[in-house]
User: Fold these one by one.
Assistant:
Number 1:
Amino acid sequence: MTNEKGFRIFATSRIGAPAENRLREHGYDLEVFEGPEAPPKSLIIEKVKSGVDGLITTLRDRIDAEIFEAGKETLKVVAQIAVGFDNINRADANKYRIPFTHTADVLTEATAEFAFFMMGMVARKMYESERLVREQRWPSWHPFLPFLGDEVTGKTIAIIGTGRIGLAMIKKCSGFDMNILCYDPAYQNNDYVNGIQEVMDLRYARGIQKEKTAIKYVEVEEALRTADYVSIHVPLLLPSETEKPTYHFINEKTLKLMKPTAYLINTSRGPVVDEKALAKALKEKTIAGAALDVFEKEPLPADSPLLDPEIADRTRLFHHFASGGQITRLSVDPEKGMAGRTAQAVIDILEGRYDGDPARMPYVVNKEAFAK
Ligand code: GLV
């Protein structure tokens, strides 16, 4: 089916030529805000008011009642190119009965592998090592000077949040002979955890790994107190939204539970970590280091305490890049790429697939608004 109905779409960002072309091949009139920065909210409202049928958004856009009100007669779908959707007010979307979609699954492995690499980078001091070479400060090979890193093999990691990405991180860590402590305030996948334990036992029995390793769910205190690495994989949930918020889950108190030799890895959402408290912990060396891909405010402001040169050797910072692999971001295949999945979500809704029932459409988040 093509664009017999004259569907119009506004995208607040480029999503790459292949997926944009797929929408245009469907005959849709696609207008793209070239960016690369996000458009002002007033422009999004203006476009929605002008009667677009579909709105493609990124996690930088605040999508709330103002936007849904502007589109209440015409807007049929908000398609977000991200798995996280804390920028979209779900209650407002439901009030206006406008479905919104996300791109779960296709970025799971890319995000988990990046989290793993970040962990290696901070623990094995890869950035410091490269700087030494580049800046001609490498005096001589030496058994332990000018510094050493910490291994991950054989160590214990706490996985905070065992949704898709947390489980993928578990899989990668188990391949590095790590012991794994899982904590999730909402959801426990015992089947997966038991499967990983079976794989660990088999690897040990067959001599593939030298030491026995273990995986189990524990309470948060035990996870934080025991782990050599703490990796965060929870969605951002504000106190106004739930009884179990994740906002500032890592704070002065929880940081104090961590070992002085432990590292924090965050690829989830910035506000899950109280950055001021983290910078203080890094400065006072009450933890060993942190690798962060997400921040309370993005891009990271110049006056962020995380940019303090005094903690630069133990603080690795990235530009919200964990899902930033070519295929993961741009593939037009909805089973592989975020862009492909975003385009497919728009097509599903505008072309009335699944009998036109958003509750049955795979990428719709707020299915509850359409339950019969
Ligand atoms: C990235 O952070 C995403 O939610 O996809």
Number 2:
Amino acid sequence: MNEIGNIVILTGAGISAESGLRTFRAEDGLWEDHPVEQVATPQGFAHDPGLVQRFYDERRANVRGASPNAAHLALGRLDAQWKGELLIVTQNIDDLHERGGAARVLHMHGEALSVWCVACDARHHWTGTLSDGPPCPACGQVAMRPDIVWFGEMPYRMEEIFAAIARADLFVSIGTSGAVYPAAGFVQQASASGARTLELNLEESLGSRLFDETRLGMASELVPAWVDQLLGAPLP
Ligand code: APR
């Protein structure tokens, strides 16, 4: 695999499932108890801001209580050792990639531990709650919302992502169902620009047929094995 220089890795909720954070579309997934339209759209927020703030207060608390698992740690090791370009594009709002040692991480759907003041446009690192209406530390207004990309909003840093995919020799998707665009379309862009494509997921996803190779299993097992393979360590 020495010819591989540039890597783009897309991650989804499946990589954090073994850290105790619920995925979205499983039978016991987050969208089962919380209709998407209510908690993950601008219209839902306008209709019942308290409900939405409480939902993300809970997400923030859960993220703080979770720890990176073997898959996050393996990607942290890869990021530290990989000499070529590498970008971990995550749909996840948790900070487990960073706590797993990865630095080259891009949160395309926002971050649980960031809040955004819609009055003054400031963003703040935030570990507490918003449902109790704290004032923005920058402007003093009570106008902070979760710094999360909701359905109907534009994901962050798309130009950077597309540019990285265009340069990639290898595109790897980990723990995502392939249900949400634009992330679900990255594999096709990567293939079109000549990258090899690999999927690591618990089960076949909506996009499995689009990948050159799919490996099925738990992220905590598949990801460390793949990283070892890539870095040239002996396989277990
Ligand atoms: N290891 C590997 N894969 C797993 C594991 C595991 N331990 N557990 C679950 N998975 C897989 C599931 O089989 C599923 O295909 O992870 C995938 C999770 O899919 P979703 O719940 O749809 O999560 P995701 O793809 O990240 O969702 C995308 O949807 O609502 C939005 O903004 C939200 O970023 C999210 C986006």
